[in-house]
Amino acid sequence: MTREPIIELEGITKTFGHGLGAFQALKGVDLAIERGDFVAVMGPSGSGKSTTMNILGCLDTPTSGVFRFLGTEVQSLTRDQRSLLRRKYLGFVFQGFNLLARTSAVENVELPLIYRGQGKAERRETALKALDRVGLVPWAEHTPAELSGGQQQRVAIARALVTDPDVLLADEPTGNLDSERSLEIMEFLVELNKTGITILMVTHEAEMAQFARTVVHFKDGVVDSIERGHRSGQPLEQAEAH
Amino acid sequence: MFGTTLMLAFREITRHILRSFLTTLGIIIGVAAVITMVTLGKGVTADIEEQISSLGANVFFVFPIATDRGQFRPFDERDVAAVREQIAGVKFVAGQVERNVIAFHNGQDWRSKVEGVGNEFLDARGIELEEGRRFTTAEETSGANVCIIGPTVREEIFPSSSSPIGERMRLDNVACQVIAVYKTRGSVGGSGDDDNAVLMPLNNVQRRFMGNDNIGYMVVAYDAAYSSRAMTLALVDLMRERRVLLEGQANDFNIVDTAQINETIAGTVGVMTGVVALIAAISLIVGGVGIMNIMLVSVTERTREIGIRLAIGALAREVQLQFLTEAVVLCCFGGLIGILLALGISIALTSAIDLPFLFDPFINVLSFVISAVIGIVFGFFPARRASKLDPIEALRHE
């Protein structure tokens, strides 16, 4: 496993609003994430974990600080440049699944490929392969309304995977699922991580964080602590000083 | 990529088929109104031009009319002679009288009219013969019992198998011999079917049918080198002088100029087309605002979808293109329905009021293009708004 940092945050701050109404969500976050890691981000609401995930997902920009993604300083990129970065290197899984309604599973999975300019037949083939990885090929033509929550989340994961991203960002991926489905999803993410994909997951459930290799605790807009070598069955890794 | 965008637009539109239809109603009505009006206008103009040309170009019709005191003084042959001799530029001038008669032949009868004319009338009106010959000078001077029949008369009471030339027929109780059949000259508005007539020498009709020397109207065909205006003035001067009208007395005759009718009617059609075009333009603008409104609703409804698309890496211009395409496709649908509607209405109306149906490709293509342009203009703002959405906010949208 390589040890190069895929993501580096240095002194990231984020302030919402102006003047008296201003609220500083991040007060100087420093974090490095290595390629191939499985990171769980935890913390109470308002601790800044979602804001950090939005910045890591190139959806938002920090007010100050440096965010390097694969060596590129993201904070100085334009909106469209960040879109291209997301398109190429990132996959998203959301708590609410965020599938397009009245659109079949396979078409949902095809969506990112459209923006990569793939042809129709090629798109379908790639999307079916991704659906196969989550075991949903028989459900390819079903719309989200016809699928269970667990199945919807697997479709969402297939959509995130279809472009072979370097990093998968999962925002409370099990938040809307019962415990049995949650475990299924987590086991799948673990398997996925073994193939080399870096996973960043926000969760408030300690049970889910157990599956991660690294757990980052947020508190009051800063990183409170980092636990490494978390997962059972994996060699323990010594926490390195940051 | 564009094919996919187009397909997506089709799908979104068919997903809300009723809403899409209602949204495009303004455009449908606008396009249908313009095309129908232009098509009908073309039909009317063509119809009038055909009628006018059947009257002959550069032709005046001079009618005696009653004065406000109720006096009515008809023309006679001396008036015709005066026009011929005293006005420069006159090519042909001929008097005409007519009367309704029953035509009999071979045991059949047919309601028609007899027209007293000379060869010069045929020239002035541009009447050509299908078969047979014109009047001889002797027949004209003596008022012989010979006749030239119209195509309707020939069809109604003569057998189609043999030529009617040389046959004898009877008009009321006057017998005559058919010497020719004239070619169809169409119908002139108001005066009935001009093909349903029997032409006889003027003298004969005056003597045997009318019992006087009067003539009903004069046809004056003039040289195209002379202006219609100058000819009218000369005619008015001459007729006023001959009828001893004092200054201040109104003309007790009327001059109808075919060129003038043409211009007047073309002008009227033009004004009507303009008015409808204006109404249509308003309808199209209202339609465009409707499109803009529904696209804004659509952007709000699909905020989450836009968020997802942006999150997975759609560029602002790709999102913008998607919504713009949707607006344009919607408008093009409207335009297309409008064109089909106009086609149906035009065909129905032209056949109902007996006008030629003239399909105008230009106005149809133009209307379609204008529909698409409306889509671009009124779809731009909503599409821009969609592309400017913040992906984080959009994903949170319920």
Task: Give short descriptive properties of this protein.
heterodimer; A: alpha/beta; 7 helices; 10 strands; globular; B: 398 residues; alpha+beta; 6-stranded mixed β-barrel; 12 strands; 58% helix
Mind explaining what this structure looks like?
The complex is a heterodimer of chains A (about 240) and B (about 400). With about 240 residues, chain A is α/β, with parallel strands linked by helices. Chain A has helices spanning about 50-55, 80-90, 105-115, 120-135, 150-160, 180-195, 205-210, and strands at about 5-15, 25-35, 40, 65-70, 70-75, 90-95, 165-170, 200, 215-220, 220-225. In chain A, strands 6-7-8-3-9-10 form a six-stranded mixed beta sheet. A four-stranded antiparallel beta sheet of chain A has the order 2-1-4-5, covered by helices on one side. In chain A, strand 1 and strand 2 form a beta hairpin. Mean pLDDT of chain A is about 90; it is low at about 230-240. Chain B is an alpha+beta fold and about 400 residues long. Helices cover about 60% and strands about 20% of the residues of chain B. Chain B has helices at about 1-15, 15-55, 75-85, 120-125, 135-140, 150-155, 200-210, 230-240, 260-300, 305-310, 315-350, 360-385, 390-395; strands spanning about 60-65, 75, 90-105, 110-115, 130, 145-150, 170, 175-180, 200, 215, 215-220, 255. Chain B has a six-stranded mixed beta barrel with strand order 3-4-9-6-8-7, surrounded by four helices. A two-stranded antiparallel sheet of chain B has the order 2-10. In chain B, a hairpin with a 2-residue loop joins strand 7 (about 170) and strand 8 (about 175-180). The interface of A and B includes residues 88 and 111 of A.
